[in-house]
Amino acid sequence: MTDLSSHDRILILDFGSQVTQLIARRLRESGVYCEIWPFTADAARIQLFAPKGIILSGGPASTVDEGSPRAPQVVFEMGIPVLGICYGQQTMCMQLGGRVEKSDHQEYGRAYVEVKEACALTQALWAPGAREQVWMSHGDRVAALPEGFRIVATSEGAPYAMVADDDRKFYGIQFHPEVVHTPHGAALLKNFTHAVCGCQGDWTMAAFRAEAIARIRAQVGDGKVICGLSGGVDSSVAAVLIHEAIGDQLTCIYVDHGVMRAGETEQVVATFRDRFNIKLVHRDASDLFLGQLAGVTDPELKRKTIGRLFIEVFEEEQEKIGGADFLAQGTLYPDVIESVSATGGPSVTIKSHHNVGGLPEDMRMKLVEPLRDLFKDEVRALGRELGLPEEIVGRHPFPGPGLAIRIPGEVTREKVQILQKADSIYLEEIRAAGLYDAIWQAFAVLLPVKTVGVMGDGRTYDSVCALRAVTSTDGMTADVYPFSMEFLTRVAGRIVNEVRGINRVTYDITSKPPGTIEWE
Ligand code: XMP
């Protein structure tokens, strides 16, 4: 956990909204450290955290219903500013003596507010009389204000779209400032944190780097650390950061399972061993993995086989170097936020995920997790701060089981080689067109289907390759990237001409849901 004593901090109490994490990201972008806790957080813990302000998030419940969530009352008794958003506004108003009602005028999506009066939240942004675009998502609305509050803005469906109690510095907004569809939302939040709460904006990656290094040294002492390196952003940034802290006490283990992308292994070795001088064990285990994958066609069995072998090989290598006291993991903040379950029920397993962090619990090493306070975009910023090359810091996510889950049916070395070639042509064209950063993930899939084609005067009977490219913010949902036909035909032409074994190319136009990003 971050040493907070030196930073201003804001506490976000989560009522289960889908977009609570966006509040935190907006705050962090303006240099404010914040944490998300469930609304059930203990009063003493909140006081100990000593935030400069508290934000109550939105949520799916209805304050009108019996037993619906409430903020701990201490929130309103600490003498610090409070901002309630949507459900947060409603529960704040209820708890302070106002009234909420179910509305017959629900508002979902884009809406407009009429700004009635000036207030600290809208300063230098919205003038009285202005009509401003916001994003609403609510059924209930505040119907009577608690004492001390006044109306700042109204909308058609919410007469109390924005309310303020200037003396206590309590603010409530019915719309969602954290989403991009509220164009001034980030600036409104910044007014809350900076102007109202007095935060300095002192959360920078340079400061984080220095503090993280000190923390790692204090935790590890003269112990030994091992880190599973995959070449992905998280494990790469974690490795370089830990190396900066403890140098040769760190050994990285890179397991090449034979289903990496073209040139990836060489790049990992060149970057970490040659450029950063990190002790790196590079184990080529491709024969083992491909041998055990022979005949395996079931997607889950493929994933499980790779996951099992990965652990076996990792343990072997770790024993060879004489073990270690600590295991480094690239755990990120979204993995550790205590979630508020909106539905209560367990979720079904769509796929059993594997990544380098998925190591067995009985390894009896202590964990070093230097990124557990960071969001993905902050990890990238830290990577740049540490001098990691852009090809690593900005790269698309790549799944732990690698190309194996992009080859439906049996995986063979020959198929892997065919796919590597098609994939690198596709990515090369995406980069050349300047589209790489606009896309969350792009890759080729080698289908277990052969089709007839004609090349020159001859008949071909070769495989089909599918191309996929999606936009996303977190991989949970995804939209198809709308390439131009001209771009797609250029890529298809190159693949069919340059990759022996592929004679047809298709483009996958399925969003997630109902599709998933990977094919298996
Ligand atoms: P799906 O295919 O479930 O993927 O829509 C969502 C995101 O997760 C990545 N992915 C994985 N990442 N280990 C990982 O580290 C895995 O086993 C794994 N499977 C899928 C996928 O590439 C996408 O970014």
From TrEMBL:
Enzyme class: ligase
Reactions it catalyzes: XMP + L-glutamine + ATP + H2O = GMP + L-glutamate + AMP + diphosphate + 2 H(+)
GO (cellular component) term, any one: cytosol
Pathway: Purine metabolism; GMP biosynthesis; GMP from XMP (L-Gln route): step 1/1
UniProt: ATP binding residues: S230, G231, G232, V233, D234, S235, S236
Subunit structure: Homodimer.
Name the UniProt record assigns to this protein: GMP synthase [glutamine-hydrolyzing]
Organism listed in the record: Pseudoroseomonas cervicalis ATCC 49957
